[in-house]
Structures are given as C-alpha cells and as structure tokens.
Amino acid sequence: MLKLTISSLCLFVCISVSAQTSKATPPKITEKAAPRILQAKRATKPVKIDGIIDEDAWKDASLATDFIEFRPVVGAKEAEESKTVSYLMYTDEGIYFGGFCYERTRDSIARELKGRDGFGMNDYIGIIFDTYKDNLNGFEYFVTPLNEQWDAKMAPNNDGNSEDFSWNAVWKSAVVMHDNGWSFEIFIPYGAIRFGKKEVQEWGVNITRRRQKTGQQFTWNPIDPNVNGFLTQEGYWTGITNIKPPVRLQFSPYFSVYGNHFPVNQSGTKNLTGQVNGGLDVKYGLNQAFTLDATLIPDFGQVQSDNQVLNLSPFEVQFNEYRNFFTEGTELFSKGGLFYSRRIGGTPIHYGKAGNQLTANEKLLKNPAESKLINASKISGRTQSGLGIGILNAITKTQYATIEDVNTKDQRKFVTDPLTNYNIIVLNQSMKNNSSVSLINTNVTRSGADYDANVTAGLFDLNDKKNTWNLGGKVAVSQLFGYLPDGKNQTGYSHQVYFGKTSGRFNFNVWQELTDTKYTHRDMGYFTNNNFLDHGTWIGYKWIEPKSWYNRIFMNLNGRVSKLYTPFAGIKETYQTGNINYNLEVQTKKLWWVGTFLGYTTKQNDFYEPRKAGLFFTRNQSFAMGGWVNSNEAKKYSFFSEIFARRHVNFYNQFGVDATVGQTFRFNSKFSVSHRLAYFPRFNNIGFTTIAGDDVIFAKRKVNTVENVLNVKYSFTNMMWITYRMRHYVSTVDNREYFTLQQNGKLLPNATFAGNVNQNANFFNIDMVYTWQFAPGSFLNVVWKNSIYTFNRVIERDYFKNFGNTLDADQNNNLSLKVIYFLDYLDMKKWGKKK
C-alpha cells in the first residue's frame, strides 16, 4: 500500500511539472564553454582602501564583468541596471579586488548588520581562489553593502564542496553606498591565503554576487547547478609572477576576568568567586603551505552554552563545538567522521564511577564534569602537488573527584580522568577529476593503567573525467590496548563503500556500511554502536528551470536496511530495522520554500534500548508524514513552520508529533528579534525505564517536551554589536504502566513494580554577549551567562508553572570580560622601523 502511495505521489508531481513545462518556454541555458581567463596584472600605483574606485591603479587592473545567473534562472545575463563590474590585480604584498554592484535604487540593496561571518539578509559579493588549481580546495572572501566580512575555506566532502566559515583571516575592506548601487575595495594580504612557490602561477578563480531581494545569484564564470561541485566550474587567473608568501607569524594574546555566583553550597551559603586568566594563541607559517596553530593556557569560558536535553535514548547526546581552536580551519580533521572535538576536554572517562567509591560516612564533595585542557596545537596545509597534511595534538590534565568524610572532614582524591594526550594525523592527496584519497590516524594515550586507543582509516573518493560518476569508500581499523579486564588488546574493523551519479537532473547513490563487534572510534570520535551491516540507496531528481509558479523543485526517495553483522550471544534474531522515505522541496516564485515528507519503518528489533546484554526490544511497523514551510526571508518578517507525526501500527497506540514554529522580525538593519518554539509530545510512548534486580523494566508513558528559544540582536556599527540568547527546555516523563522485557523482545505487564521513575527536567540558559572589534582581528567581549538546572520526580504539567519554578531555583551566574589583541609580525616590524 505504501509503495503504491509513494509511486502515485511521484507520478502526480512528475505529471504536474510536465504540464507546467508544456505551458512555458524554458529559459535558454548557456552551453558549457571553456573557462573564462583573467590575465593577472600587477599594480604599479598605490591604492587606498576606502570603498571608492577612483585610483589610477584600477584603470590597469584586469576587468571581470558580464556575470551569468545560476539561481534561479540558469544561464541568464545580468540586467544592465543591476550589472556587476569588478577589477582584480596584485602587488608584492597581496591582492586587490574592487568594483561596483549596480542597482536600480538605493532601496533595492538588501542590507543588515549581522556581525562577522553572519550571513543575514544581505546582498554580497565575494571572490573564491583555488590557489592549488585542484578543483577541491578554495579560499573565499565576501563583503556586504555595510562592509561586514565573511571568509571561509572550501573543501570536499561526500556531498560535494562544503564551506567552513569558522576559518578566519585578517584582511581589509571598505564599502560605499550610492544612489545606483554600492562600490567596494578589498585587500587580501598574502598572509591571509595559502599558495605554492612556483615563479609563475595560475590560480582557479570565480566571483559571485547575491541580490537577496530577488533571490538571484550570479558568477563571473558560469555555474551549472546540475554539475557536481562549485570549484569544478571555475575560471582562471593566469600569469601571476614572482609572488612570495611573507613571514606568517601572528600572536593573539588574551586577558580575561571572571566573576562567578554559584548556587547554594553544602554549608548553605552562597559561593562568590573570581578568576583572572591569561594566555596566547599563535599562528606561524612553517613554509609557503603549512601553518602551525597553537593555543597556550586556553580559555573557553565565553563560548555559547550547550543545548542540554533530557536524554531517554541509549546513546550519548552529540553537542556542537563552539571553541574557536577546534572549529577554525579543521576541514582536514573532519574527514572520515573519526574526530569529535568535544572529546578533548570533555566528560572524564571515570566520571560515573566516582559515586561508587564512597564508603560509610563519605560523600562526594566535588566531581568536575569536564577535563581541563592544558594546551593544543595543529599543523595544516597543502603542498603544490596537492598533498594536504593535518596534525592536531592536545593534552588534558589529570582530573580528580573529591571525596570527604562527613565526620572527620578528611578528604581524598579519586582519579576520574588521567593525564591524556590526543593526536590526529591526516594525509589527503588531491588527484585529477575532483578526486582524492586520504589516510587518517587518531590516537588517545592515557597515563597509568587506563587503556589507550588507536584508529586508522583509508578513504577514497573518485570521479570520472566528466565529473558525472562517483565511487568512494572508507576502510578503518580500531585498536584498544589494555582495554579488556584481562589486559588483552582488541582490534575491530569497519568499512563503507558508495557508488552513484552526481551530475545531471537525475542522481542516485547506493551504499553499504559494515562494522564488526569490536570496532569503535569512541575515544576520539562520536560513536553510538557497532556490529551492523547496512545497505541503502538514495534517488533524486530536480527541476532548476523556473516555470510559471516555481523556481526549483527537488525530490528524492531513500531507503535503508540494517541487520546485525554477528548475532549477539543467546539471540538468534539479527534483523534490526528498515525504512523508506520520500521528500519533496519546492521554491516558489515568491521565494517561499515548502516541503513534504512521507516515511515507512518496518518492524524493529532494538538491541540497545534494553541497556542489558542478551536482550532486545521489538517495535511494530510505523508510518510517518509531515510538511514544512519557510517564508521569504528577505522580508522584514519571516517565519518557519514544521509538523511531523509518526504512528505505530497495533503497538500500544503509540503516537508522536514534532511541531516547530519560528519567526524573525527585522526592525531595521541594526535590530532584529527571532523566536523559536518547539513542542514534541509522545503519547503512549514505550521505552526503557530502569533495571530492578534481574528484570529490565519498560513503561508506557506520556512524554512532553517543549523548547523555547529567544534571540535578540542589536548592532551599533559593523564592528560593535550585542546579542542575547535565552533558551528554556522542559521535558516531563509521566509513566502510566510498567512492563518486564521478555527474552523474545516482547513486554509482559508488571503490576508489582512500585518505584517512582517519573522525570521532570528543566534547563534554562541565558547567553548575553557584547562584542567590539576595536582593531583588525582584535576583540573585546563582555559576556553574561545564566544557567539553571532542575530535576525532580514530581510531574508539573503546566508549562508556565514549570518555567516559574525553574526561575525560582538556584542560579549559576557568570560575568566575564575578555580582551584579545591581534599582533602581526610584519606590522610589528614596520613599527620598529618607524621608531
């Protein structure tokens, strides 16, 4: 029945689109032509970066104009009244890029102050350099009409090229708005880009412009969205001669002051503490291609608070990384999915064992939830031959829990995390046809008797000459040394292989993934479970030529089947789960996005929900459906809404809903407010509750989860802004009936269990940040953080009472000031000469 439904829907969409196609003449799409070429020209006269293209030097620069649209109308030429004129040239010190973005009127320019690397609802222009000309790795520099900067590294992943906007460089820009558009000037010093050491060089290059209010995007060298990859369709900047990278030595010393107001301590008094920190970040260019990044005595106290949740699953929650050192320029280290940076300075490996060490008359006085990072460093870069090398090393200090005798007040220490060294090495070789191979090794070495871990993986991603067919995969081996109780080593194996078509309107991918029972990369990566053999496929079709009512349509069908690779001891069952999903996304002429989802999941055997070896839990099949809509974000007011529902068949009437509503209002270019409300009710939810003796207890329960997030942003200038983020999360688990899990995966009613295992959890956080970029690369930050956590066994069903009770609880307040000052060796050298 489901297959018939999905097939009918696919047929309906195809017929509808075909009908529209017959009514309108498709726009003319330019044939794929030879890449455009800019002859490099060296500036011989000075340029002042003030946003006005009036210096004589610009008259001799290379001219890049006649941009081609690739979104929404592929291949269309720019209108004369909104054309783009840009210039490019270079000197011994760096690259100059400038030009004029014409508009009908000043009001046609979309502009919003959003902060560095904040896209917002802005027009922009940017230049992308592929300095190694490998169609894989690029450097991007963007500027908005209000002179806010973005920069990014572009690197390949399984979905094509991805942009890492956490990478930051120091460069100059200026913008001036006019009645008929806006002009810009950019200077990129060679210290802000990486390139080889050839005497005469040719770089890949492209220039892109976005007009936010019309949803249009243009590039200097034409881009066909049906072709895999952005850098594979670049132009060339030729004849760059006698440029040499400068000495790249940059320092970012910091000074920070913290004032902490903690909740009530054991003696019933308030804790008021202060802290003063200082440290240093260093960037040093080892040669033309490689850079050493080091952080000494790092301070991450001002990073955004984690989105904590009540976790009912058998697996740990994966949190986002907000620490700059681990987000900036780490594209090499993310290959293969083996590196989860939150492992470094994360939860101690024996954190949960501290409470088990207590004897009579003892209490756990202190048990830190995070290990302290001593220092970290990384070396990364790419040679002229396309070999990328990345090395990251970090050390965390020994972490202790403090145990106190309640009578004598004597204290003793229990090691929850030994002195630990984390290391990752990545070798990535770029090849022809947008292809690459990689070798990755991660290693965790712990002092004392704790086990060590090592994972080695080889990756390959190959494309044919026409960049249409793709074959790739991964082979990984993990080793644990001294892990088992008898001290023996453990070796595991995993692989993944995929094949597909990546260019054209019709694309597909088929894949297989396998891990044996001993494989793990948990010690340095995010890892849930092993022992599986999965097969899957993805089939997609797209319409990118605008018609009478839509700009773009994307449709895909995907499915997956999973089974155990090796049966668990005492369990004959090996089948885990299977599902099939259908997705449809449409962008309308009004720049709205709408989408629908249909899904079917087969009967499941869950080997992890019981939390006890030798058991599994069987769920019946389920159907899911949903839809979403996103209004035109270029408008002052925009909203997002999504609803998703899943119904299980003949399984305790289990039913769940995910409903989310978000909205944003931009009062002007400086001030905006956004709000998101998410509601996740689960009716007759069945899941693990506790273990009582030898019995695994499940419950039929009502689970209610609400997440409420408010964001406020005000920018004083493009160099000074303040943000406010408030998040309240509440989740209640009201257990109604109890069951004992049987050996066959089914549940037997349990009328004798009388424990109170209800849960009522609240997380409340405020992050208020004032930022002033008082000099290039230099920042002053003032941050107020407020954190509240409450948990009890009494269910409060009224959301507002829950919220009020949370605000009445003990609060952890933190106020901090941090100053980071950027120092460049070349600038310091110039200062010395002037003196």
Automatic annotation (TrEMBL):
**InterPro entries under this entry?**
DUF5916
Q: Which residues does UniProt assign to the signal peptide?
A: 1-19
Q: Which residues form the DUF5916 domain?
A: 245-831
Pfam assignment, any one: DUF5916
Q: Which UniProt keywords apply?
A: Signal
Protein's recorded name: DUF5916 domain-containing protein
